[in-house]
Specification:
Length: 312
């Protein structure tokens, strides 16, 4: 007998008049705002300028969305490109389907472009964003709850997730893996914030810590899921991805600590003032050297007569 369970919403869309508000999209947008807000606070604390994080996010977010969707479509191509499926569904991002691996990879490309345009080191910017990205993932996972997807094995635990009957799913109570991952991501964010304050992480090591910690949790959470996925040597593809990315993050952390210890002292260099009239005007009249007065020519002075009066 089930004593309690987590109910799933009857629909993932709320209509505000003629405007549909999709729960999945709302969670993604909320996560972006959280990441930018926290990243901006951390960037300013590191000596950066207000607004820089948002300016670079304008490049990173679109790239990340495209990368996340590409990873999902490529790794789950059978959902879109086999007989009986409609390939147009691959563009329906609001129905769910964003791979965090592709989102981070291509999002980093967008961030690199934005950082290069501002003359900012990408690792420093990534360190500032790391805990915010983890919190963004925590918020974004609730989009899976709205869509009733990516749940785990059947269970009768009090916190089991109730799933209703529908396409590609059977009614029952299952492990709420979306909730497990959301809570794990919150823990990762707190870990990165604590470690960054305690050890003054720099040169991308805070971001590497976030990646490694997330992958450690994603591995066991992915192992609990029952949705269709490709398997390699008995393990789901995303489990292998988590293992490989975890190792790369740890290697980067260790090598970075040896090659570039400490933290960046300047994360956003001041731009030099342009040469020209502005520089001259800045000096002002008080800085100009006075012209030396011409020496008086005795011959040009009117001669004085014996009475002392000048001859005009």
């Amino acid at each position: 007998m089930e004593l309690a369970f987590i109910p799933s919403p009857s629909t993932g869309v709320i209509h505000l008049g003629p405007i549909p508000l999709r729960g999945y999209a709302f969670c993604i947008i909320l996560g972006v705002f959280i990441a930018v807000w926290l990243g901006n606070k951390r960037w300013i604390a590191r000596g950066g300028k207000p607004g820089t994080v948002a300016d670079i996010a304008v490049w990173a977010v679109p790239f990340g969305l495209v990368g996340g969707r590409l990873y999902h479509v490529v790794t789950d191509y059978q959902l879109y490109f086999v007989e009986g499926r409609n390939w147009v569904d691959a563009f329906k991002i609001w129905e769910g389907g964003l791979g965090i691996w592709g989102a981070i990879a291509l999002g980093a490309v967008g961030a690199w472009i934005g950082c290069r345009r501002r003359g900012i080191p990408l690792p420093a910017w990534a360190d500032a964003l790391a805990p915010g990205i983890a919190l963004a993932q925590a918020a974004g996972r609730w989009g899976n709850w709205f869509n009733q997807e990516l749940y785990g094995r059947e269970t009768d635990l009090p916190w089991a997730l109730e799933i209703s009957d529908g396409p590609n799913r059977i009614a029952g109570t299952y492990h709420p893996t979306f909730l497990y991952e959301s809570l794990w991501c919150i823990g990762v964010a707190l870990l990165v914030i604590w470690a960054d304050r305690r050890f003054k992480l720099g040169h991308g090591r805070a971001f590497a810590l976030y990646v490694a910690a997330y992958c450690a949790g994603r591995g066991w959470i992915e192992y609990m899921r029952v949705d269709d996925a490709h398997h390699i040597l008995g393990l789901r593809l995303n489990v292998w991805t988590a293992i490989v990315v975890f190792v790369l993050a740890v290697v980067y952390f260790v090598l970075s600590a040896k090659l570039r210890p400490g933290r960046e002292t300047v994360v956003e260099p001041e731009r030099s003032l342009p040469e020209g009239p502005a520089k001259t005007a800045e000096a002002g009249p008080t800085d100009a050297k006075a012209e030396p007065e011409a020496e008086a020519d005795p011959a040009s002075e009117p001669a004085e007569d014996a009475a002392g009066s000048k001859k005009l």
